[in-house]
Design goal:
This protein is α/β, with parallel strands linked by helices and 482 residues long. It folds into two domains: 10-252 and 460-479, Glycogen Phosphorylase B (Rossmann fold), CATH 3.40.50.2000; 265-455, 3-Layer(aba) Sandwich (Rossmann fold). It contains 19 helices and 15 strands. It has helices at residues 19-34, 49-60, 74-77, 92-104, 106-116, 129-136, 149-161, 201-215, 229-238, 255-260, 267-278, 298-311, 334-338, 351-355, 369-377, 391-401, 426-438, 442-460, 465-479, and strands at residues 10-14, 38-43, 65-69, 120-124, 141-145, 173-175, 184-186, 218-221, 243-245, 285-289, 314-319, 342-346, 360-365, 382-384, 405-407. Strands 3-2-1-4-5-8-9 form a seven-stranded parallel sheet, sandwiched between helices. Strands 12-11-10-13-14-15 form a six-stranded parallel sheet, sandwiched between helices. Strand 2, helix 2 (49-60) and strand 3 form a beta-alpha-beta unit.
């Protein structure tokens, strides 16, 4: 439903070049456009295909939304052409050059803002320079943070108070101070927020982002009040920051949008996957996916395969591996043995459509915020396996605060791609999968998450908490116009 405003606002959106950041900000731009706001998304050539279908759909609905393409400065920093997204980097040297290029984008965005003079710039937190550039032209800069309110509150508390300095061991727990709930963490789960003392380009960006947070106009959070009310209040009242919760943004997606969202596979592969699920009983299949960045070692993938076989549960498993004649990460004859009971999807899968399918009974996830929120919107209990970033905090929200998931037992932040030994063993994976699929607490967890699913849909409906926050933000930005 499009709601016309009496004076059209023009907002620019600058997503960070990673699917987990880009896709929700595209959804958010569509939300603004659906409310009569002119929305302009900025990206680079390699990332542009992620935007095209969504923008085409929005335009067909009469929304005023467009894409503006800028050149990624690969040559200036010595990167090979085409490395314009986080998951395309291959080693640390490329990572440092990539973040140098991210900073150089300022030189292209500044003249665009000067020319178009939008009424607001919504830029990802990993563009800290966006606050300074916006201020130069009197444009309010609003930050888009990928995580929800709970992880933002917890991360802020850890960085401000450094409670981890009081414990002697990396595996010894401490209480995160000042939160509404008693949340325990360990040093192992905090990197790189433990000690930002290095000089890598990423650490420079994180430090600068922390400063920009304090001086920007406010933040947009892809969440809804009823999911984490104590932490929405804590962020605003205790930390004293302006924030608007306007999600879950993915609920604005049409069925066709869900099919195309982040798509890198063929339509044939998509329909094969959904047809396979159509043949299964309700709540009988475990969906396993670790996002677009996680890169497990062969030995860890082998443990997952062995656990799935031992659990005797049906599964659909998304793996970032190409089909080879001999695959060391699979037990001999695994796919033949699992035929009919398990499906391995190599590469990309239509996650939103899979999660809402009646056959899915649980989601084994890395606890990225988008995946967590999408599971809630689908009414899907979770088996949590965090790997890095805000994921360990998201696990606490899912398992301890909301009570809609069980932990697989991941104990520390790590890149598992080069490890010679699996950090999470078959037995613990099997136990978590079995507990959520056939254990005594499964119905209680499913009941809780189905209630949250309904609250999410009410939040984005007319008069709901997220609908009202978006209305308030639009009105506030209108009042700031000269």
């Amino acid at each position: 439903m499009e709601i016309k405003t009496d004076q059209q606002l023009h907002i620019f959106f600058l997503p960070y070049m990673a699917q987990g950041h880009t896709l929700p900000l595209i959804d958010i731009a569509k939300l603004f456009a659906s409310r009569g706001v002119k929305s302009t998304l900025i990206t680079t050539p390699v990332n542009a295909p992620l935007f095209s279908k969504a923008i085409q759909t929005s335009k067909s609905l009469g929304f005023d939304i467009e894409l503006l393409i800028i050149i990624f400065p690969s040559t200036e920093v010595g990167l090979p052409e085409g490395i314009e997204r986080t998951n395309l980097r291959r080693h640390q040297e490329q990572t440092d050059k990539y973040f140098k290029a991210i900073n150089l984008l300022k030189q292209q965005v500044e003249p665009i803002l000067e020319q178009h003079r939008p009424h607001c710039l919504v830029a990802d937190s990993l563009f800290p320079w966006a606050t300074e550039v916006s201020a130069k032209f009197g444009i309010p800069r609003i930050i888009f943070h990928g995580p929800g309110f709970f992880p933002l509150c917890a991360i802020t508390s850890v960085m401000r108070h450094q409670p981890q300095r009081e414990v002697s061991s990396d595996s010894k727990s401490f209480v995160v101070p000042g939160l509404p709930d008693k949340i325990k963490m360990t040093k192992n789960k905090l990197v790189p927020f433990l000690a930002l003392d290095g000089e890598s380009e990423l650490i420079k960006v994180v430090k600068a982002s922390s400063v920009a947070d304090e001086t920007s106009y406010g933040i947009i959070v892809n969440s809804f009040y009823e999911l984490e009310p104590n932490y929405a209040d804590h962020y605003r009242k205790v930390l004293g920051r302006k924030a608007w919760h306007i999600g879950p943004a993915s609920l604005c997606e049409t069925e066709n949008d869900k099919l195309e969202r982040g798509r890198e596979g063929s339509a044939v592969e998509v329909h094969e996957c959904l047809n396979w699920l159509d043949s299964k009983e309700p709540n009988s299949v475990v969906y396993i996916c670790f996002g677009s960045l996680a890169n497990f070692s062969d030995c860890q993938l082998l443990e997952i395969a062995l656990a799935l076989e031992a659990s005797r549960q049906q599964f659909i498993w998304v793996v970032k591996k190409e089909k080879k004649d001999k695959e060391e990460w699979l037990p001999e004859g695994f796919e033949q043995k699992m035929e009919g009971n398990g499906l391995i999807v190599r590469g990309w899968a239509p996650q939103l459509l899979i999660l809402q399918h009646k056959a899915i009974g649980a989601f084994l996830t890395h606890c990225g915020w988008n995946s967590t929120l999408e599971a809630v919107c689908a009414g899907m209990p979770m088996i949590t396996w965090p790997i890095s970033a805000d994921q360990f905090y998201n696990e606490k929200l899912v398992t301890e605060i909301l009570g809609i998931g069980v932990a697989v037992g991941a104990e520390k932040w790590e890149d598992d791609s080069v490890k010679s030994e699996a950090s999470v063993k078959k037995e613990t994976i099997e136990k978590a999968v079995t507990e959520l699929m056939v254990g005594p607490e499964k119905e209680e967890m499913r009941s809780k998450v189905l209630a949250l699913k309904e609250l999410a849909r009410r939040a984005v409906a007319v008069g709901g908490s997220s609908f009202s926050d978006l209305t308030a933000l639009i009105e506030e930005l209108k009042s700031l116009r000269p």
